[in-house]
């Protein structure tokens, strides 16, 4: 239910929701937060809150760690490189569509 009179809160997930959505244990999600692999915010009570993209990121970390036998430092590097590739691919699509120019021109 939405109303212009109600404050709009950003969607957020708690650690149990992220663990359930990603098929992992909450302790593994907490470990990923401690390692800096998954961003989270703490509220005043110390609870962790995640944005809706967190389950996908957790699944990606688990898959990279298991399938490629990467340690978590290498997983962080691969995730950063994949994000950079996504940015470059999106710029390539913009350039090919003729609707924009890249920021470096």
Largest sheet: 3 strands, antiparallel
What is the class in the CATH system?
Mainly Alpha
> What is the overall shape?
flat
What percentage of amino acids are in beta strands?
5-15%
Number of beta-strand segments: 3
The overall number of domains is 1
Write a structural description:
This protein has 4 helices and 3 strands. Strands 1-3-2 form a 3-stranded antiparallel sheet. The termini are far apart. The chain has 105 residues and is mainly α. It has helices at residues 15-22, 26-34, 54-67, 72-97; strands at 13-14, 41-42, 48-50. It has one domain (15-97): Multidrug-efflux Transporter Regulator, Chain: A, Domain 2. Helix 3 crosses helix 4 (72-97). A hairpin with a 5-residue loop joins strand 2 (41-42) and strand 3 (48-50). 54% of the residues lie in helices and 7% in strands. 14% of the residues are buried.
């Amino acid at each position: 239910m939405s109303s212009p009179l109600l404050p709009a809160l950003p969607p957020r997930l708690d650690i149990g929701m992220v663990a359930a959505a990603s098929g992992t244990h909450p302790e593994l999600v907490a470990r990923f937060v401690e390692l800096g692999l998954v961003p989270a915010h703490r509220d005043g009570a110390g609870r962790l809150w995640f944005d809706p993209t967190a389950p996908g990121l957790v699944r990606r970390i688990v898959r990279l760690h298991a399938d490629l036998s990467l340690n978590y430092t290498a997983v962080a590097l691969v995730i950063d490189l994949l994000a950079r590739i996504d940015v470059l691919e999106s710029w390539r699509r913009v350039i090919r569509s003729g609707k924009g120019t890249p920021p470096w021109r």
